[in-house]
Design brief:
This protein is mainly α. It has one domain: Orthogonal Bundle (Cytochrome Bc1 Complex, Chain D, domain 2), CATH 1.10.760.10. It has 5 helices and no strands. It is globular and about 30 Å long. The chain starts with a helix and ends with a helix. Bound molecules: heme C (HEC). The site of heme C has 20 residues, from α3 and α4.
Length: 97
């Protein structure tokens, strides 16, 4: 998160472009911040190694037969009626992909 804030401070034009172009692939700095977020925030429920906990495992093998659209939808909007929250306020479509 700090890296993203630093990026916002030092390169406001690049940051604004990233936010408005919702499906653009994340920059290197953003990818770094996303990996940390997934380990910490998603790891709280899906396990620190994403091998499962309260939520199911999010490993490559476990998600192999899921479509990208379904994974993006679950990540951004959550699963109503389950503890899986939606993350659309913190992630763009490009981030989730
Ligand atoms: C509060 C706990 C919690 C947190 C935090 C959480 N999840 Fe989940 N997640 C769940 C639960 C519970 C399910 C299973 C929902 C169901 O029963 O369908 C789930 C399901 C999922 C699925 C569907 C998996 C499948 O097998 O279809 C994905 C993808 C997913 N979560 C991604 C994420 C990501 C990415 C994050 C972090 C940005 C995250 N989750 C954070 C609880 C959580």
């Amino acid at each position: 998160m700090r890296r993203v804030l630093l990026l916002a401070l030092f390169a406001p034009a690049a940051f604004a472009a990233q936010v408005t172009d919702a499906a653009a692939p994340p920059t290197f700095q953003r990818q770094h911040a996303l990996v940390r977020m997934v380990r910490q925030d998603c790891g709280a429920c899906h396990g620190m190694k994403l091998t499962g906990g309260l939520g199911p495992p999010l490993t490559r093998e476990a998600l192999a037969d899921r479509s990208i659209e379904s994974l993006v939808a679950t990540t951004l909007y959550g699963r109503p009626g389950t503890p899986m929250p939606g993350w659309h306020s913190m992630l763009s479509v490009g981030d989730a992909q």
